[in-house]
Amino acid sequence: MIWLVAFLSCIGLICAETPFNHNVHNQKVIGGHNAPRNMWKWQVSLQYDSYNDGSFYHLCGGSIIDSFNIMTAAHCILSMNAGSYRVVVGEHNLYEYDGSEQFIRVERITVHPYWNGDLAKGNDIAILRLAQPVYANGYVAIAELPVPGQMLPNGFVCYITGWGLMDYGGSVPAILQEAAIPVVEHSICSQPNWWGSLALKSMVCAGGDGIISGCQGDSGGPLNCFTDGAWRVHGVVSYGPAGMCNQLYKPTVFTRVSFFEDWIYSVSLLLPP
User: Fold this and answer.
1) Which residues belong to CATH 2.40.10.10 in the chain?
2) Among residues 84, 124, 213, 218, which one is catalytic?
3) Domain spanning 157-259: which CATH class is it, in words?
4) Would strands 203-206 and 69-72 be described as parallel, antiparallel, or unpaired?
């Protein structure tokens, strides 16, 4: 299951809650609804085998950025042992096998070199190299990425997708969820009554209306925005508020993809070992 890491105050420091819980699985976007089948073809379910016994469970979201590479959040990486992970592409209902899915093992994990486990410092991004390529079966697609350096205007409506919490401690649907969520530009998100200094220019804020948000279970998944004539992945779910996820003035925060594209391409263009 994915967990959106939530910030807590720790005697003047910022720390993160444990990024997963073995007792809760497959939750959804707050304020969302079932996504149309075969709509978000680049959406990935990143799955983890915590006991190395072949029992994989949904841990995080991700996006297909080419046939061999998946983009996700660095805080989703609980172990650098690539053999503990697999991705499922072409997925819609986590509880049912529809024949559209591809189950592919992870071969190599590359975490951003400046990621230090502190979400407040940013760099919450990782690339997973697959052991075999995703093949075109009509249910998958490579994500389009934004123009390097692009920042979206305040109020620009995007879509968050994932299998995250519907409410804090809420129900656990199996079907991929989607929700329209407006961007909150940096000059607003960085104000003291919003996220303040925790909102960096290398991040995208979206939501904060107290109704729609990402939550535990959406980490690593995409922020999908229609720009320059195509749906593009502008963000990777990174963090949100502790406790109730859909808090007023505390939008979901994403790693801004356009800030990291040079690094993304430098990693994804590496040849397999």
Assistant:
1) 40-142+261-268, 157-259
2) 124
3) mainly beta
4) unpaired
